[in-house]
Amino acid sequence: MVMPLDLLMSFRGNIYEMTCAAMKRGVQINLIGDEDLEPNREKIVSTAIKQVLMQKVQYRFEA
Fold first, then answer.
1. Domain count of the chain?
2. Is residue 25 part of a domain?
3. pTM
4. Is residue 58 domain-resident?
């Protein structure tokens, strides 16, 4: 599965923070690439969301 819908639906954190983290991760993946792109059929947004939800990348919200 490209998009982890089960993880997205069960996410109980701040959805705004998760969305911002996924957007920033998507930009990073677009610029430098990632080894997870090939299994996800080169879908940058899906890869970024999956990495954030599976906690492969760490993020924090700074005001």
1. 1
2. yes
3. 0.81
4. no
Inside any domain, residue 62:
no
Cβ burial 16-54 (10 Å sphere, 16+ → b, else e): eebeebbeebbeebeeeebebeeebeebbbbbbbbbbbe
Assigned domain for 47 exists = yes
Rounded average pLDDT per 10-residue block, the chain, 63 residues: 80 91 94 85 89 89 74
Containing structural domain, residue 48 = 5-53
For tokens 């819908």, the residue is: 5
Check if the beta carbon of residue 18 is closer than 8 Å to that of residue 52: yes
Q: What is the pLDDT of residue 19?
A: 92
Cα torsion for 40, 12, 55, 25, to the nearest 10°?
A: 60
